[in-house]
Amino acid sequence: MIRRLIIKELQEHWLPLSALVAVSFTGLFLVTLGSIVTEEAGNVLGALRSFLLTFGLPIALVISNRLVVREYQGKTQLFLESLPLTRARMIAVKYALGLVVMAGFVAVSLVMLLPVAAHRQPLTARFVEIVALRALVFTFLVYAYFFATGMLGRYRMAIYALTLVGLVVLTMTTDLELARFGPFALMNQTFPFEWDAFPVEPLLMAFGLGAAFSVLAFALALTREGSTAAMLAEKMSHREKMFVAAMLLGLMFLGGIFGKKPEKQPFAMPGAIVRHSPHATVSVDPGRDEDLEAARALASQVDKDIDGVVEYLGLKNSPPVYVAARRDLDPNLYERGELLNSEGVLARANFAAGGFDVDRFRMWLIREFVVTATDQRAELESKSWVLDGLGPFWINGHRAAPATDGLLSDRRLALRALYGTGAGTETRQTSLAAADLRNWRSFRERFGEGVAAGVAWSGLDVLSRHQGPERTRQFLQAVLASPAPKDVRALAFEWQNGVDVQLERIAGVPASRFLTMWREELDAARSALQADLARLPRLDGALLFAPLSPETRTAQYRVAFEPAPAADAPRVTLLHADLSGFSASVAPQELQREDIDVIHASSGELDGTWSRGARVYWTFSAEVTDLGCDVISGWKSQDIE
Amino acid sequence: MPLLRKELRALIPFIGLVFFICAISVADEMIDHWPDMRPLSLTINTLVAPGPGYSVPLFLLVFALGSGLLVREQDEGTIEFIDSLPVSRSRVFWTKFLLASLVFCLIPISNLAIAVALHGLSRTSIDPSFHWQALLISFFLAVCQSTFFLALALLLSFLRRFSWLMVVLLVWAYLLVERFHPGVAVFNPLALTMPHFAGQHWILPTDLLKAQMPLAAVMLIGAWFLFAGAGDRIGQAYRKLSLSRAGLAVMAGAAVLTVVLGFVTAYYLIRQDPASADESADSRKVARAVYASWTTAHASSTYYSFVYPANLSDRARAVIAHADEVHEKVRTFLGASAEGGRIAVDMTGSVPRHAGVAYWNTIRLDLAAFDDVDLLLGILGHETVHVYVNRLSDSRVENAFDSTRFFNEGLATYLEYRLFGSSERVRQSRSVAAVMRQRREVEFRELVNNGLLRRNRDLNVVYPLGEVFVAALVDRFGDDAPGTLLRTLARKERPSGLQGMELWRDTFQAAGFSLEVAIDAFFSRLDVLANEYRAFASSLPRPRGAVHYEFGEIGVEPQWAPMEGWDIVCRFRQSADSEEREYLNSASDDFGVFRVDSALLPGATFWFQIGIRELGTGRTIWEPWREIRNTR
After folding, report:
1. Chain B partners of A26 at a C-beta cutoff of 8 Å?
2. Distance, CA of B624 to CA of A442 (rounded, Å)
3. Nearest-CA distance from B631 to chain A in Å?
4. How far apart are CA B334 and CA B312, in angstroms?
5. B517 lies within 8 A of chain A by CB
6. Which residues neighbour A550 within 8 Å (Cβ) at sequence distance 6 or greater?
7. Among all residues of chain B, which has the CA nearest to that of A179?
8. How confident is the model over A287-331, as pLDDT tens digits?
9. Among B426, B428, B430, B424, CA closest to B442
10. SS (H, E, C) A103-144
11. How many CB atoms are closer than 10 A to CB A438?
């Protein structure tokens, strides 16, 4: 009877099975051909791995569908059940037939590929055993899975999707490395190259899973005299399918939102000087023994700053600060390192170099610290000017008694403020407007971060002297340190707690009145520092693209330096970078630098080919000692025509 | 109208699913992000131009719906009811198709609406524009892509369960053909929604559209032809044929003929391989790949088992005689145990552009390419290092290839030079690193991100730069440092999913080293090299390339001040993430112009890279890659 049953199955399915064989071996041919001609797989058995991973699943799906799903959906199993044959035998015949076909694919593939492989490497019996066992056990598992899910009839699609979603969510939310998990480990990159060791654990796991699926398939087929499988075989309606799909997508979404987030790893710099204070942890890595003293001094200073800033602003979060030595950087050029999987602020600076300006670094670091501590919220454009002013305001004695000489208490910062708010050296009027504060990023792009920080400092200084240090502190706390909910409610929060609102509510001065006060103070300082201001250089320039061909260009620059550069004129640098997509700016470390000797040549040509249609972000920059920062010609985002 | 209502009703569950997907996107933005910190520059990769990460799931979704859209009527027997209605099958077909297409438009519409809303809340004064042109093009291309997917699904749906198998087959066939005819990329629907910008304008990929939209139309007509009646007739004919032995024979014959024709076509395509002549670029001047001879010989030593061409027995024996010494030097340096079995060495040939290549416990090298036994031993040593890197790191170096390639190649190169090399080869390698440093082209974030490195530079710079990094590492932390790092990578408690800087930071930290100190030492060493080779670097010309389109070809005319002993080289690729094997190397013509058939680069843009190569040594200094608009 079993023989007849096999014949019946073969008669029923011979054509689809033949088609399956033809399609599959065409697939194997394509995969193998690709492997041989590209010469990159290293071993033609790599093709078997690709074949099993890509074709193995649909082959098992089709076979199970023909042998099981079709039978139960068409209710033709009732006919088989009427035969003088136990149900278990009937299922066993189907199961064995499918398994033999699947194993046949593996066996034939091996027989075809091993002789080819033998030309390129010595084949040992152990190697063949390892490869064959891995392939067969993997195939067994895949087949058993599809056979068992075939018995689940209407729910099989949902199970497939659930399996996929489950694996994705597991990978996303846990430390599970799928490539090292049982069945996947069998098919990893060592598959065609493992000569010596049987991967016992993955083999056992895959075989165990396959056996479990097989038992499940038989259990479903035999439970309640087969009525469970028959009941499940009813086709799922379109509506049910969509409902299940939506449910799974929802689960995946919820898993992503509420699942275990990857834990941030503690970051450490072995050998670093570490300073702890109540609100801060600062590590400074000297890099080499000679720079130990410089590192110690910097660590103490930065620790004091950060501890103070956290307390002053009442920040709820105080990420650790790490400073690493980078001897290849210019003394006043700093880099932010990314700590994606750890918490903290990582800065790189050449702090042991001769020209290193520690106050300038502290100002920069305080800003970066607050940005990180507030999860970038402090960088919102509406509050950017406050953030930019914080560093110099802190360094310049935020708690000090009101200065009698107004903004002139710090000549350098005052000069920066005047430089950024005067339309030209001859102007005696301050050009600062409310729009500049609202569009602070554009303002920064026009004048550079150093000058913008000076302007912002002058605002905070004016506020502190007119409204008092405590009100200023509360204002800074409210603007920079109030935590907005991390969802759509942040919109309402910012609307209710904007800078202008906080100025009036906390600092006690309406925004328009504050701006008037600020301008008056700047005007007063401008009169006092007019001569110094006139000596400050102003940069202007252009980047021109000349045709090399219709689609390619050369880049030529021209820089104007006013007043005319003297022998001790600062070094001018052309900073530039390609912009992609909708980006409007780039990180400082991505900028290319071209040093220009303005005394001898104010124009020149950049190396390389430029493409028409590309976008370049550029400015000329020069360090001005009197300001203690760089002045720039203004960042431009230029399309190459 | 009743037909429209009926089809609409049938699609309601699917429309519900699409709305649900859209709702999930909105909820994700509203619950998990600050909506006022999501400008277009940040959402472009998730909402406006999400790339294959979106296109592949979209394909699965479209295929799942499309594969049941027509045949369900036949499978469930409702086609007879439809036939009894006063509507033609054609009308039914086009109604189904249009409604399904409209449903799929909902996803890009929803994505773009979310992106616009977020940008409205987040835009700053330096990027206030909504970039409407790019958004419209994005929508248009998303619609074209889903139409293509739907047309394919409708056509293949008549194969029922075999349709999925056919998709896998088509993918493999495409990959194979693309290897020999890169121009076939014009039919890749995933490339449609890959953004290419001119300024902030999204360039319409006209060549792709010209190829894919007619193909979609053909597939649609095919599906319509089968649904509107031919399918029934074919089905009847098949049943009729299958009832007779002669019919079965005819079908079997046709199937065999189809398969044979397929194989012949594949063979023909491979014989026409235009790329085979171009594979001349290699950092070690491997001018040709030597394929396995049918006559091979076997040998083994304590640590290796060899297969080599029998006609090179003397050379092979000379290598084999010293192979175990090579192994022991590498193993001792890395502090590894000798367990792990013999390493299989296939000396019958390597992969194109490489003198040797290593896999898990397996090495391939080209015995025929070099007659210098010391050089071959160096290559064997280099590849043995890779094998031990994999063993010691429990394959984690290979698993994180993009982040670790520079270290893997750097360590192998460092040990090759230190244990088996000559000072001349070290000098050449380091001069390349010095030139890059002087040109400010060395960025550590690129070294730990192979994709980023590939975008901008020659991938082979991982050899000289990696070597300098490992030398700096050893200098700063001692000879044990590389082995310690590899063993640390293999530790079980390591957090999963780390990449790039994070992976290395974690590894260095767990090993008790500071990555920042290593980076500092690396750049300091590079600065020393840059000073040492300053005169050489300054003497090198910086070539430019003027791109021209003529006679169906793309030409790059080099512009440089020729330098004695150096020649100019140029190569092309389709996209920033093209594999190195897909690069099109071109030889210059009589006018010194490098040309390539423009059909091989059908995208909206293409890339070229120009460089100079030292005659005799093969040392090559490449300029950064440049992306050019395809305006031919």
Report:
1. 169, 259, 262
2. 31
3. 8
4. 32
5. yes
6. A612, B547, B548, B631
7. B399
8. 888 899 999 999 999 999 999 999 999 999 999 999 999 988 888
9. B430
10. HHHHHHHHHHHHHHHHCCCCCCHHHHHHHHHHHHHHHHHHHH
11. 17
The DSSP element (H or E) to which B620 belongs, if any, is strand B620-622
Half-sphere exposure of B450 (CA within 13 A, CB side): 21
Which residue from B minimizes the CA distance to A37?
B270
Q: What is the 3-state secondary structure (H, E, C) of A54-106?
A: HCHHHHHHHHHHHHHHHHHHCCCHHHHHCCCCCHHHHHHHHHHHHHHHHHHHH
Q: CB A54 to CB B502 under 8 A?
A: no
How many Cβ atoms from other residues are within 10 Å of residue A260's Cβ? 10
Assess contact for A506 and A471: CB atoms under 8 A.
yes
Q: How far out from the chain centre does Cα A22 lie?
A: 44
Alpha-helix runs per DSSP H in B303-439: 313-334, 373-392, 396-399, 401-415, 423-438
Contact A453, A391 (CB under 8 A): yes
C-alpha–C-alpha distance, residues B366 and A120, integer Å? 12
Confidence of residue B248 (pLDDT cuts 50, 70, 90): confident
* CB-based contact A488 B559, cutoff 8 Å: no
Question: Which H/E stretch holds residue A146?
Answer: helix A125-151
Amino acid at A10: L
Identity of the amino acid at A217: A
Quick one: which of A85, A92, A91, A86 has its CA closest to A71? A91
- What gap in Å lies between CA B628 and CA A578, rounded to an integer? 13
Between CA A619 and CA A577 the distance in angstroms is 10
Q: What is the pLDDT of residues A351-392, one digit of tens each?
A: 999 889 999 999 999 999 999 999 999 999 999 999 999 999
pTM: 0.86
Interface predicted TM-score (ipTM) of this complex, two decimals: 0.85
Torsion, CA A33, CA A36, CA A40, CA A42, rounded to 10: 120
B307, β-bridge pairs: B298, B346
The count of residues in chain A is 641
